Each structure stands twice: as C-alpha cells, then as structure tokens.
C-alpha cells in the first residue's frame, strides 16, 4: 500500500451538477492521459503533482458525491482541507446561493482552508450572453469580501482550468512555510489545550 | 458578614480560604487548598517527577535490551543452523517481557512491581525481569499467537532500524520509552491517549525532518515503521477502551444494519450489476476486505483494508458502467457494501484509526479519501430515513417493521439500463421462494376454510337427523294410531270347503317285533 505522498488536500464543493467532476476530469486528463500517475480506475480521488518553481507540490484532489442525499455528510469531507474549490454554475443562480452556503460553512469550520470561488461552464455564457445568471463583478465582489480567489472556467474548452489548480498549488507552497512555523501539531478537530498531556513532548 | 457566619455556627477564618502556598490568592478545596496557579505548578512538579521516574525506568530497560540485542545479533550470525523460531530465539528472552506490556492486567502488575522495587530496593535490579517472566509462564496459551505477532513486529522493527545505524538506535530508545510511559496511562480518556500518541508522532516526525533535512519521503518511511511498532504494542489497551462508548456504538450500528437488511441496491442507486460474474466477484472481495479490517492492529493496515475494498468497488463500477467511476458512484456503492458486510466493530475501528493513525496519511492521501468515505457511509447509515432512499415514510415504516418487503417498483427507473431491460424478476431468489410459499399457504388456508364449513354443515346435518327421524316417526304414529279390534273367535275348520277332497288319512303301519 505505498500510495503517492500527498502534500495538501483540495476538496471540490458545490451543488449537484455544477461541474465538479468535469473540472477534475478535465484537469487530470489534460496532463495525465499518458503520465504515470493517472488514477485509472476512478476520478474520485486524484493525486496530482504540480511543478511550482523548483519544487513539486502534490495535490490530493477530493471529488465529492453530488447528490443532495449526502449533503449532510460533506462536513466530514472537507475536514483538514488546505484548499476548497467552491463551484457554481454561471447559468444557474441557485447554485451561487449554494456556493455562498459552502463558503460560510468553510469559514466556520476550517480556518486553514483557502477558498477558491469557481464559476463553471464559461463556454455556455460566452456562446450566448443571455444565459449568464451570475454577473462576473458580483461574484468578484463576493470573492474579495471573503478573501477568496475567483475564477471562471470551462471544462469543455479547458479555459482557465490549469490556471485554477496552478494557483492552488502556488498558494499552498507559499503558505506552507508560515503554517509550519506557527503550528507545530496537526489538530484533529479537537481542542488543543494539551497542558496536562504535555508530558509526551518530554525528551 | 461575620454575623451571618456566626449565626450559622460556622467559623471561617479568612486565612483558611487563602492558598496554602501563601501567595495571597484564594485557594480551592478541589485543588487541595491551593490557588489555580500554585496547583498547576504543583501538579506539574509531581507530573515531572513521575515522567523522570518513567524515564529512568525506560533507560534501564533500554540498557538491558541493548545488551540482549547485541547478544542476539551475535548469536544470529554465529549459528544459522539453529532454529530461528522467535520464541526460542535467544534474543527473545529479553524481548518477551516487553511484549506483555500490551496485556492490561499483566502490564499493571509489572509496572507496579517495577516501580515499587525501584523505589524501595534499588539494589535488586534484576527483580522486575524475574517477575514478568513468572507472569509469562502462567499466561494462557491463548495469548501466544498475539505475542508471537508482537515479537515478530519488534524483530522487524529492530531489523529496519539497524539499517539506519545511529539514528536507528535513538528512534528505538524513544519508542521504547514512549511505550513504557503509555503503559502508566491506562486511566486516561481516549482523546487524551490519542493526543499523547499524536504528540509523539509529531515530535518524532519533527526530529526526523531535521535529521533528514526535509526529505518527507524518508521521514514517512520511518514514521510508518514507528506507527507499526508502537500501535502493535498499544493495541489491546487503546482499541475500544472502556472509558468510551465505542462498544455501545458498535452494537447499535450492527443492530441498525441488520434492521436495514431489506435495502436494495436499486434504492441506493448503485451502479453495480451483480448479474455480471466479474462484478459480483469484486463485490465479494470488497466485502471480505472490509470485514478483514477488524483483524488488523496497525492503523495503517486497517486503512489498507479500506483502500483495497474501495478499489474493488471501483472495479465493479467500471465493469458495470464501462467507464471510470466518479465520487457520485462510489459513495452509494460503499454504503451498499457496508450494509451487506456489516463489518465487525465498525465504529471502534473508525475511532481507533482516527485517534492513532499518522495524521498526514489520514488527512490528505488516497487512503484518507477512502477512509473519509467510510466515515460518511457510517454516518449515512446511522441517519438513514425514508427520504434518503426516496421512499414514503409509510413504506419505510412497513419495511423497517418487517410488515412488507420491497418488490421491484417504479423507483427502479433510476437504474441505468432499466429502460431497455426491465429486470422485473431481479428479486432475490430466496424472496421469490418465500413469496411462492406464501401463496401456497394462503390457498391452503382458503381450502381449509371450505373444508371447515363443510364439516360444520355436516355436523349440523348429523345433529338434526335424529330429530327429523323422530318427527317423521311421530307423524306416522299419529297418522296411523294403533287400533285394537274386538277379538272374533271362529272354528278353525269352518271355512274348510274342500275337506271332502282331502285324501284319506294315512293309517299307521304296525311292525311286528
Ligand atoms: N458546456 C459545459 N458543460 C459542462 C461543463 N462542466 C460540466 N458540464 C456538464 O454539466 C453536467 C454536470 O457535470 P458534473 O461534472 O457531473 O457535475 P457535478 O455533479 O458537480 O460533478 C454534465 O452534463 C457536464 O457535461 C462545462 O464547462 N461546459
Ligand atoms: Mg460529480
Ligand atoms: Zn497560590
């Protein structure tokens, strides 16, 4: 069981059929069709090495089940994620409401998780402007308000997809140093007042 | 103020309320009359002392082990022909006692003995060893397999560390000391135990990181071995500990899964067609893997079972759909497998992995992904209701109570391919048999009722028959009453008209004697 070592967990969130799975598939197939790391049996989890400057950062990309019947379980999914790609469909305003919900959830529960707001199916709205239901600037304003990066992508044409994941990897790389110095242990979602148990540090 | 206390007859001197250390703050009975600050310091001091004692003990054991280690190493190279079975191996006379640390009772006893001996008779250095060996001889053969496994793991660990030379020795020492330290912490809650182990992993990983100058690959490799060694030793005392309600949850989950036996693959919208032999083969393997998880001791090995199970599920889906499975296919399929397998001690295993697995593996990697999905599956099953299966609450109730069993119905439209081939008879053959038997029984029942009716009418007939006969007789009797006519006497021969036609009477013949 020697799976690839992964540096950071990236979780895909968003309403059913906004295009989370397509985004991952597009990204992975684009680069890994012939590569050695392709996960040939399924696209639910993908370990993806990305070149960042001198280094190689391996992202573990977690796709989530879209069906609403599993929505209550999503919190288990994003636990410990270092980045979340919150997707909404540019042609569906209700999906943007849903994205707002995910953002709030993440802000409450995962303070170390960086948020990437991603409007999907860009090809549809560039073909027919009337289909667009979420204004670019509205989404941009929201992203700034929550301190998130904002992208509009198309899994069909591949537009902006690489850029999105590249940004995720770069941000992780530059934040990794700060994170490592400020926090010395991994918090498993429990309180961290280990005053009484500090004995284990003894050496 | 003072009046009131006097009235109640309680005399409280202001100085009694103050911290016994005289720092000027108020003390508290719960902190043995100290203020919180002084109590903390005091506690820390006692704690520190205990740690130092543990440490001294660990070092002593370490020295002993190192001696044995060296001799075993020598023995090994000297005679290859000798039996190398772990139990007879010379090195294991000293490794033996340590393997007992995982056994709660033995362990406590050992610890008590060694600590007491250490405090009161520092000259008898060999005493603890003797004690544990005594315990060992009396231990039942039942534990032999377990201790064999533990010994093997220790041996592997030592072999692995030998290649690392000097840092290997240091790592060994740290791990050994940690296990000794942990053996004195049986009373801690599960979360605290977890914290101790996680802290140990963390400090070990930090040190390795600086030793290997940031090569995470090498660090991870060593950490895997450390986890294996430590958790094999600690397993018995920290898996499903009594301080938690893990066991209760296990039973609840098991019962719940049994109650949900009626849930079909279609209700969960799983894209696995078990009619295809290759698919059902994978399903069986997945079930076996998830059940096997309980038999492993090392968190990473348990994770390995989950991962193997998941890969079989992915294969089953891919074969069914003829395309790679996505997260949307995977989770429902995993739920289905868990329902079918009803894995032993599911909650305990999930908790154990969460508490004691190396977090970098659990949180980010592929194993972590499958593990997270298993957690979701368990949560889903726990909360499962009518809505989660697209059923009406009434239907759900009837299935749950066993009043009805689901037949193939309209919800099957979700099943991919249902359009072309409506597999109406795809029900469980046992269910089909059951239904057939039920039909037979109900027809038997109706026939029996007919027989019963007939019998009853026969009975009624039989009862009324004598009466009818009696009545008839009565009627006849009434109709034809018995008439007694006056008696008419007449000469017998009066009416004999033909007398003269009679032949002459026979004359008797006389025989002379
Ligand atoms: N035109 C277009 N369609 C898309 C795009 N991304 C996804 N889709 C379609 O949207 C539907 C849902 O996509 P999927 O990835 O399964 O969504 P998920 O439920 O979020 O995983 C599918 O029919 C996709 O073909 C896109 O970028 N452009
Ligand atoms: Mg999807
Ligand atoms: Zn004080």
TrEMBL record, chain A:
<comment type="function">
    <text>The small GTPases Rab are key regulators of intracellular membrane trafficking, from the formation of transport vesicles to their fusion with membranes. Rabs cycle between an inactive GDP-bound form and an active GTP-bound form that is able to recruit to membranes different sets of downstream effectors directly responsible for vesicle formation, movement, tethering and fusion. RAB24 is an atypical RAB protein that presents low GTPase activity and thereby exists predominantly in the GTP-bound active state. RAB24 is required for the clearance of late autophagic vacuoles under basal conditions.</text>
</comment>
<dbReference type="GO" id="GO:0005525">
    <property type="term" value="F:GTP binding"/>
</dbReference>
<keyword id="KW-0472">Membrane</keyword>
<dbReference type="GO" id="GO:0048471">
    <property type="term" value="C:perinuclear region of cytoplasm"/>
</dbReference>
<keyword id="KW-0597">Phosphoprotein</keyword>
<keyword id="KW-0963">Cytoplasm</keyword>
<keyword id="KW-0072">Autophagy</keyword>
<dbReference type="InterPro" id="IPR005225">
    <property type="entry name" value="Small_GTP-bd"/>
</dbReference>
<dbReference type="InterPro" id="IPR027417">
    <property type="entry name" value="P-loop_NTPase"/>
</dbReference>
<keyword id="KW-0460">Magnesium</keyword>
<dbReference type="Pfam" id="PF00071">
    <property type="entry name" value="Ras"/>
</dbReference>
<keyword id="KW-0206">Cytoskeleton</keyword>
<dbReference type="GO" id="GO:0015031">
    <property type="term" value="P:protein transport"/>
</dbReference>
<dbReference type="GO" id="GO:0005829">
    <property type="term" value="C:cytosol"/>
</dbReference>
<dbReference type="GO" id="GO:0046872">
    <property type="term" value="F:metal ion binding"/>
</dbReference>
<keyword id="KW-0636">Prenylation</keyword>
<dbReference type="InterPro" id="IPR001806">
    <property type="entry name" value="Small_GTPase"/>
</dbReference>
<keyword id="KW-0479">Metal-binding</keyword>
<comment type="similarity">
    <text>Belongs to the small GTPase superfamily. Rab family.</text>
</comment>
<keyword id="KW-0378">Hydrolase</keyword>
<dbReference type="GO" id="GO:0006914">
    <property type="term" value="P:autophagy"/>
</dbReference>
<keyword id="KW-0342">GTP-binding</keyword>
TrEMBL record, chain B:
<feature type="domain" description="A20-type">
    <location>
        <begin position="13"/>
        <end position="47"/>
    </location>
</feature>
<feature type="region of interest" description="Disordered">
    <location>
        <begin position="66"/>
        <end position="147"/>
    </location>
</feature>
<protein>
    <submittedName>
        <fullName>Rab5 GDP/GTP exchange factor</fullName>
    </submittedName>
</protein>
<keyword id="KW-0479">Metal-binding</keyword>
<dbReference type="Pfam" id="PF01754">
    <property type="entry name" value="zf-A20"/>
</dbReference>
<dbReference type="InterPro" id="IPR041545">
    <property type="entry name" value="DUF5601"/>
</dbReference>
<dbReference type="GO" id="GO:0030139">
    <property type="term" value="C:endocytic vesicle"/>
</dbReference>
<dbReference type="InterPro" id="IPR002653">
    <property type="entry name" value="Znf_A20"/>
</dbReference>
<dbReference type="GO" id="GO:0031267">
    <property type="term" value="F:small GTPase binding"/>
</dbReference>
<feature type="compositionally biased region" description="Polar residues">
    <location>
        <begin position="135"/>
        <end position="144"/>
    </location>
</feature>
<dbReference type="GO" id="GO:0008270">
    <property type="term" value="F:zinc ion binding"/>
</dbReference>
<feature type="compositionally biased region" description="Basic and acidic residues">
    <location>
        <begin position="100"/>
        <end position="111"/>
    </location>
</feature>
<dbReference type="Pfam" id="PF02204">
    <property type="entry name" value="VPS9"/>
</dbReference>
<keyword id="KW-0862">Zinc</keyword>
<dbReference type="InterPro" id="IPR045046">
    <property type="entry name" value="Vps9-like"/>
</dbReference>
<dbReference type="GO" id="GO:0016192">
    <property type="term" value="P:vesicle-mediated transport"/>
</dbReference>
<dbReference type="InterPro" id="IPR037191">
    <property type="entry name" value="VPS9_dom_sf"/>
</dbReference>
<dbReference type="Pfam" id="PF18151">
    <property type="entry name" value="DUF5601"/>
</dbReference>
<dbReference type="InterPro" id="IPR003123">
    <property type="entry name" value="VPS9"/>
</dbReference>
<dbReference type="GO" id="GO:0003677">
    <property type="term" value="F:DNA binding"/>
</dbReference>
<keyword id="KW-0863">Zinc-finger</keyword>
<feature type="domain" description="VPS9">
    <location>
        <begin position="247"/>
        <end position="390"/>
    </location>
</feature>
């Amino acid at each position: 069981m020697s799976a690839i070592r992964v540096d950071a967990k990236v979780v895909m969130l968003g309403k059913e059929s906004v295009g989370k799975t397509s985004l991952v598939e597009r990204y992975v197939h684009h680069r890994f069709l012939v590569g050695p790391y392709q996960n040939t049996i399924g696209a639910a989890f993908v370990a993806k090495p990305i070149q960042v400057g001198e280094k190689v950062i391996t992202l573990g990309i977690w796709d989530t089940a879209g069906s609403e019947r599993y929505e209550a379980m999503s919190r288990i999914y994003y636990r410990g994620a270092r980045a979340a790609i919150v997707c909404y469909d540019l042609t569906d305003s209700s999906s943007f409401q849903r994205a707002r919900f995910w953002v709030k959830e993440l802000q409450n529960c995962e303070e170390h998780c960086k948020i990437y707001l991603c409007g999907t199916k860009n090809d549809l709205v560039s073909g027919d402007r009337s289909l667009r239901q979420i204004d670019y600037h509205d989404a941009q304003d929201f992203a700034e308000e929550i301190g998130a990066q904002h992208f509009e992508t198309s899994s069909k044409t591949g537009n902006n997809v690489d850029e999105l994941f590249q940004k995720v990897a770069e941000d992780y790389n530059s934040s990794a140093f700060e994170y490592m110095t400020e926090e010395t242990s991994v918090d498993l979602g429990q309180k961290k007042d280990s005053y009484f148990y500090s004995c284990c540090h003894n050496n | 103020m003072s009046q009131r206390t006097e009235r109640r007859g309680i005399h409280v001197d202001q100085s009694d309320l103050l911290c016994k250390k005289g720092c000027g703050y108020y003390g508290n009975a719960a902190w043995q009359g100290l203020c919180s600050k002084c109590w903390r310091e005091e506690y820390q001091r006692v704690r520190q002392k205990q740690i130092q004692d543990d440490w001294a003990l660990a070092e002593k054991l370490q020295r002993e082990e190192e001696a044995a280690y060296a001799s075993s190493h020598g023995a090994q190279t000297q005679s290859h022909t000798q039996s190398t079975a772990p139990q007879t191996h010379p090195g294991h006379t000293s490794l033996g006692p340590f393997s007992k640390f995982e056994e709660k009772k033995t362990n406590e006893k050992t610890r008590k003995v060694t600590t007491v001996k250490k405090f009161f008779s520092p000259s008898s250095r060999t005493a603890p060893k003797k004690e544990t060996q005594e315990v060992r001889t009396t231990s039942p053969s039942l534990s032999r397999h377990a201790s064999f496994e533990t010994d093997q793991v220790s041996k592997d660990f030592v072999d692995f560390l030998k290649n690392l030379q000097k840092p290997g020795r240091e790592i060994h020492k740290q791990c050994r000391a940690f296990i000794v330290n942990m053996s004195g912490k049986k009373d801690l809650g599960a979360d605290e135990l977890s914290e101790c182990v996680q802290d140990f992993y963390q400090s070990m990983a930090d040190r390795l990181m600086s030793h290997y100058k940031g090569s995470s690959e090498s660090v991870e490799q060593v950490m895997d071995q450390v986890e294996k060694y430590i958790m094999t030793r600690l397993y018995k005392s920290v898996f499903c500990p009594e301080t938690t309600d893990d066991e209760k949850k296990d039973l609840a989950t098991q019962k719940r899964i049994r109650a949900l036996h009626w849930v079909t693959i279609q209700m969960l919208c799983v894209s696995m067609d078990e009619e295809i032999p290759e698919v059902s083969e994978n399903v069986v393997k997945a079930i076996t893997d998830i059940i096997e998880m309980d038999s492993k001791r090392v968190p990473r090995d348990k994770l390995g079972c989950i991962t193997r199970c998941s890969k079989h599920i992915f294969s089953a889906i891919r074969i069914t759909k003829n395309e790679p499975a996505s997260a949307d296919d995977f989770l429902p399929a995993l739920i289905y497998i868990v329902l079918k397998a009803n894995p032993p001690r599911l909650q305990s295993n999930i908790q154990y992995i969460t508490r004691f697995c190396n977090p970098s593996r659990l949180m980010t990697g592929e194993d972590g992904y499958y593990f997270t999905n298993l957690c979701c599956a368990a949560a889903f099953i726990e909360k499962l209701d009518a809505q989660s299966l697209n059923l009406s609450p009434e239907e759900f109730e009837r299935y749950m109570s066993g009043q009805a069993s689901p037949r193939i119905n309209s919800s099957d439209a979700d099943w991919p391919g249902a359009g072309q081939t409506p597999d109406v008879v795809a029900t469980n053959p046992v269910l089909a048999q059951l239904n057939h038997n039920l039909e037979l029984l109900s027809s038997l029942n109706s026939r029996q009722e007919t027989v019963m009716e007939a019998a009853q009418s026969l009975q009624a007939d039989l009862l009324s028959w004598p009466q009818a006969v009696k009545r008839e007789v009565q009627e006849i009797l009434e109709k034809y009453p018995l008439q007694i006519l006056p008696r008419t006497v007449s000469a017998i021969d009066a009416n004999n008209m033909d007398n003269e036609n009679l032949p002459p009477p026979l004359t008797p013949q006389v025989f002379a004697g």
